[in-house]
Amino acid sequence: MKILVLNCGSSSLKYQLIDMADESVLAKGLCERIAIEGSRMEHKPAGKDKYIIERPMKDHSVAIQMVLEALTDAEHGVLGSIGEVGAVGHRVVHGGEAFHSSVIITDEVMRAIKACCELAPLHNPPNLLGIEATEKLLPGVPMVAVFDTAFHQTMPEKAYLYAIPLKYYDEYKVRKYGFHGTSHKYVGLRAAEMLGKPASALKIITCHLGNGCSVAAINGGKSVDTSMGFTPLEGLAMGTRSGDIDPSVVLFISERENMTAKDAAEILNKKSGVLGISGISSDFRDLEAARDQGDKNAACALSLFSYRTAKYIGAYAAAMNGADAIVFTAGVGENGPGTRSAVCAYLGYLGVALDEEKNAVRGREIDITTPESKVRVLVIPTNEELVIARDTNELVK
Fold it and tell me: How many angstroms separate the Cα of 107 from the Cα of each of 92, 128, 236, 252?
């Protein structure tokens, strides 16, 4: 079966076409600046050069139509007809408490996703637009929703409840949900395969470190805690997000600066993190270059990031009463040997012994510890699209 995987953002659409016979990627691409002047599409068929189309896209329906045309194009396509698409898997950011796993999309599921728009106002609406557009363009083709939050629905109450009046959970469902679940699920399972043991027998700490960052504690194959919370703002310091902060800081600065709640959210989400500390960039490559040139703020931002990541790893080792493996994934986790080394420097008490020569790798699977290390440290490139395709394939079959 050939499965089309779609990830719709507010003005973007990422896609992959995957042949489940061998899980090969037949084509992938990106539509960006949807409903904005300067719309463009990048399409990369397997074994062929990438090509770019610049054409207005007034909405997601036009963007998806362009994707379908590209997949069947005589020169750049990989399908004889669009009828070869057996199913479509959609990334949906927030499933709330309604979804503990991926599901075939029905009218009832659509209503439940819409009900979660209040919890994810920037993400769920474009996810819904993508589903609705696909339904019109590919009538009768089964579709599956794969939720970022679903993997973390196994967290116990003691992990997901906040220490605020319980009525806010009962009435508004204010609780920790966690995100990046598809990524944590993939690398957790892959780590078990690399270690040659069943996931059910392992305690794994997965670190998804990119512009957005989260750490998860996976015990016996199930998420028991994760650093992101009610929104993706909680947890680690990130590219532009503050992560954990004393709530009184927000109140104090808001009063001094005469800010609205919207103003404060803008600062915490888009002007904080390593960007806010460094004053330079949210890109770790820029920060490392600046640090190497003697910039103290860049050095501080990198040091703060590594320290906070190590603290969460320590917390989750305590939560699970041990750890068999630690996994680094996503942009910084996969391609940042300096960050991995700085984090692992705090983990000697766990028995972590890093092999710096192995750690020099970027973007490929590897165990970067010495044979004597009591905890394995793995680098595993994430593959959220493959998880979506696998879940879609399993449900449709």
Answer: 15, 12, 37, 45
Q: Is residue 100 packed enough to be buried (19+ CB in 10 Å), middle (13-18) or exposed (0-12)?
A: middle
Burial class (CB in 10 A: 0-12, 13-18, 19+), 273: buried
Nearest to 230 by CA among 297, 286, 164: 164
Tokens 């009828």 correspond to: 83
Rounded alpha-carbon distances, angstroms, from residue 63 to 59, 190, 269: 7, 33, 28
3-class secondary-structure state, position 219: strand
Angle CA(360)–CA(312)–CA(276) in degrees, nearest 5? 80
Which tokens is 135 given? 């339904």
pTM of the model: 0.91
- Report the DSSP beta bridge partners of residue 14: 7, 30
Pick the CATH number of 197-379 from 3.40.1010.10, 3.30.420.40, 3.30.200.20, 3.40.1190.20: 3.30.420.40
Half-sphere exposure at residue 159, Cβ-oriented, CA atoms within 13 angstroms: 21
pLDDT tens digits, residue range 165-191?
A: 999 999 999 999 999 999 999 999 999
Provide the greatest CA pair distance for the chain. Answer: 63
Domain ranges of the chain: 2-147, 197-379
2-147 folds as: Nucleotidyltransferase; domain 5 (3.30.420)
- Indicate which residue of 148, 225, 367, 391 is catalytic: 148
Per residue in 137-148, pLDDT (tens digit) is 899 999 999 999
Whether 148 is catalytic = yes
